[in-house]
């Protein structure tokens, strides 16, 4: 009984202690819960996707994030987990992060670039503060295709009415109104737009970062339409039409430009003179109405009038005039855009197929296998028979033959082990699109495989847009892309042995160099010089111009070569002829680039005023850099396609 009494007393004590612990925990929870709720209520976040909610799924899409914070200043982090469609056996998977400084009791905003194909799958953006999710915003928008998105910078949604019923080369134009704050700060995100329309005053109201992105986008092949006149902000060039006094001019010259029978009558204009290098499309040199000039690969168009002029809006030919403007811009486009369809499965992302050429085991040649088999047959046949016959021990063949088979098997395993790589295997291919002024747009895909499980860390240039892909079902959080001020860091965690990881990166390089070209055309032949002003050796340099392929061989850095008639051959299919000439595009990892070049050719615009320079290089692309950790690299193969558009000057014949 005493034992039972002690047991009951102990049970009562333990029950009391348990109740006290539960009460204490309940008290803590009751105290902490309001504080946690207060933390959540101290932060609010909203996100605007694309342009007026519209975006193109095959491009990087700008997301304008606005955060209101009540509390002390702190460093927060934006976190986006992305997944995307499959490309063969590969699919997009990873976590993207951006640092965001929250001011004390204030608001802040920033732009981030998100892959459009991930938005189409549905995703949300988290704001992480003090290692916990403080706010979440669902990223919603409308993916569009078979239309040309044209942005109109204005605070009023009615400002897009002048583009109603307009088309560009048969494709309907979808105009979207953008506030000045909604213009992105990334040239890659502007690739969603076919054109951007803004008055000169609205251009000058943009931030320096927005103007730099706009200038880079136009130089890469974009189209800017400036309305009205005035001084453009740097680094945009001077506009085609200089500013002048306000005047009412005859708008009927617009009728011939639009292809209509009558014009709008009198319209308001502030035109001065047309620039010497500009092309006049409507009006006169004294009273220009519409003019354009090239800027890099892109174009800058300008109207000396406001598109919202009531007389223009009431004119029945208004839609035809803007349609004619877009069509004329397409006709005079002399170079394909560099930033286009980068995230399309058949576009830039197709470069990730370079992983198919990874060789986890380098098999010995047939001659090696032949020698091993011959040695085994000789040892198991004539040698064994001869030795046992001399020793009069023929019965030992039952033991010797299995022993020889075991030795041969061990030798084969040893031979296979020697072919097993001792470190990382990496294949990388990319494209270096030179602008001709020392800058370049570059993108590439890197495939990584290892015989051992481990982590890999890649450090890429700040501002690079990065996607990670994988061919297994590993957690998304095992691939993290951190966007920082000094670099973009990619961390691949717990990668299983023999599993492939893909890193696709793109960005601008301010000091890539150029291929300096001085071309002249006379009597259907191309003359001039080509100088390699990059820091890499260019292999298989060729010039494509007007049905002619000019072969120049390899060029070391600083080397110059002249074009001669003997180097030129007529071609009806310059892509296949270039592949025959530059064998790097038809062997090994070069097959991936060769297939991509065939698709890229659809966007190549060549006319008598420009030539296309092509080459390959064995390296030189920062996006294909090896991991920065200390894991050994057993094999690293890279190949880069280099291209640049160069102007061609006609030779003026005497007496013409």
TrEMBL record:
Organism (species): Alicyclobacillus vulcanalis
Transmembrane parts of this sequence: 369-388, 395-416
UniProt keyword list: Membrane, Signal, Transmembrane, Transmembrane helix
Record-linked InterPro entries: Class_I_gatase-like
Name this protein carries in UniProt: Uncharacterized protein
Signal peptide limits: 1-23
Domain of life: Bacteria
